Amino acid sequence: MNPLAIIGRSFLDFLTVVGVLARFSIRSVKHCVIPPFYLRQTAKQFIDIGDYSLPVVGLTALFTGMVLALQSHTGFSRFDAESAIPTVVVLSITRELGPVMAGLMVAGRIGAAIAAELGTMRVTEQIDALTTLSTNPFKYLIAPRLIAGTLMLPILVLVSDVIGVFGGFFVCVYELQFNAANYISQTWEFLESSDVTSGLWKAAAFGFIITLMGCYHGFNSRGGAQGVGKATTNAVVSASILILVVNYLLTGLFFAGK
Amino acid sequence: MTDAPKIELNGLAKSFGDKHVLRGIDLSVGQRESVVIIGGSGTGKSVMLKCILGLLGSDKGSVKIDGKDATNLSGSALDAHQAKFGMLFQGSALFDSLPVWHNVAFKLAQQPGISRKEAKARAIETLASVGLSPDVGDIYPAELSGGMQKRVALARAIAAKPEIIFFDEPTTGLDPIMADVINELIVKCVREVGATAISITHDMASARKIADRIAMLYEGRIIWQGSKENIDRSGNPYVDQFINGRAEGPIKMQVRKL
Ligand SMILES: Nc1ncnc2c1ncn2[C@@H]1O[C@H](COP(=O)(O)OP(=O)(O)OP(=O)(O)O)[C@@H](O)[C@H]1O
Ligand SMILES: [Mg+2]
User: Which of A17, B7, B138, B243 gives a 20 to 30 Å CA spacing to A203?
Assistant: First the structure.
């Protein structure tokens, strides 16, 4: 086949996917803000997402903070800049690693779970059954997950920020013989509130992306167990890639000109 | 407009890619009439019901309900359309995350002013009418046998007393006695509640019991329809072969000799 035709075809396919996805997101968001709301479903999603993710997110943050302290120590000790370690740890955690690591972990945990659940509901006709029982699946299934994901991720990231900083503290104080009080005061010294809030905005965006991808792939899955498996993989992969891309864009947006 | 048929299909066609499943269905179902659709496996009986419900879009032809066009609706018109129906899905399609009672009372529980307790009590009543004891109400669908799931699905379809009910193979997988109980229940539903019903079945005993009229679907069209009394003297070789269950005849199964 003509190579130009292949490029053209894939570009058109890409545009189609973007269009379909945009329509799906607009429709989903619309159902998040227009009543009726399924509060019980939403509360359940909050608990599910928090409950499922907190252990992994916390553990990831702890080790990220620890390794960050260890690595920056190797580097900074070469030119006697150990006192910068607390600042490096807290800024890296709050601005980048906290939200991104949590986002990627939650994508693997929650994005996959959502895609598998909705995918199974699709192939066993439970989603069709919902509509025959006068229930809009966008309202009943998708809106609660989007709302819970978008609001829950910032909370998870806030917790993981604290745990991550503690990880760095732990390594510095117990391994590298830093003074504990100094470490804490240095942590605060250069930290600005925008460092934390920008991370939380990122987290909200990632929460939306993760749940949207889970819902989109699950909702549109077809063809039995294999289809559900594919939906699950696609949800995790697409959410992870989008998280990395959006993270870059948001970083540019927040810290442009600083 | 009481003279208009409840459901009227004109030249309804549906293809999946180049697979033409429905090639032009003409069928009209009167108010409070019970029509049974028979036809070989894979001839598109379930697809036809889904096209009427608006779960699948049709390619050609029209669907009218009470004389009003209901072809390929969307948005709130589709919601209003679907609210008229109850459907027993071929694969039951029970919500596996909800206990049995909540499945049955799903539509009821969403109406404002109905407490969970009330909804549950009504669900237990409906379960009793399909021969299930109250303690079934508290377990989850996955813990039920296939036949019990079918009965729960039936209870869910009739619980909200819809105007139109579709039964997709209501007695498949039930023992003969329970099948007869279900047949009677369907008849009762149609007679007492005044619902209009379309049922799909492979079981001729069941068809004779439920139907006012029987229609046979073959190669995407209705090739014969008439009252159940006339089915034994239809003079149609396809119908004769089907109701007598003969391998030899004009309908050729796509199987190769071993
Ligand atoms: N979503 C779909 N995508 C593609 N093909 C489909 C889809 N749904 C149904 N079909 C095809 O349409 C045809 C009719 O399917 P349908 O489920 O209506 O059969 P049926 O008459 O109900 O059969 P059975 O008696 O076995 O239930 C089948 O060949 C099936 O492969
Ligand atoms: Mg079928």
Answer: A17
Using a CB-CB cut-off of 8 Å, the residues of chain A touching B52 are: none
pTM for the whole structure: 0.89
Q: At what angle do helices A143-174 and A193-219 cross, to 10 degrees?
A: 140
Q: Buried (b) or exposed (e) across A42-81, using 16+ Cβ within 10 A?
A: beebbebbbeebbebbbebbbebbbebbbebbeeeeeeee
Q: Does B175 contact chain A (CB < 8 Å)?
A: no
Ligand 1 centroid to residue B221 C-alpha, Å: 14
Q: What is the pLDDT of residues B53-112, one digit of tens each?
A: 999 999 999 999 998 888 888 888 888 899 899 999 998 899 999 999 999 999 988 888
**Cβ <8 Å between A131 and B55:** yes
B233: Cα separation from own chain's centroid: 26
For chain B, the straight-line distance linking the first and the last C-alpha, in angstroms and rounded, comes to 57
Return the closest-CA partner of residue A149 out of A122, A198, A111, A120. A111
Q: Using a 6 Å cutoff on CB, does residue B21 contact ligand 1?
A: yes
Domains and CATH numbers, chain B: 1-81+196-258 (3.40.50.300)
Cis peptide leading into B176, omega within 30 of 0?
A: no
Give the pLDDT confidence score for residue A169 in this predicted structure: 93
Mutate to test the pocket of ligand 1, among B15, B18, B19, B21 (most ligand atoms within 8 A of CB): B21
Residue of chain B minimizing CA distance to A128: B55
Which tokens belong to B106? 């799903």
For ligand 1, is residue B46 a contact (CB within 6 Å)? yes
Residue B166 pairs in a beta bridge with B87, B198
Confidence band of A164 (pLDDT split at 50, 70, 90): very high
Residues in chain B, pLDDT under 70:
1-2, 254-258
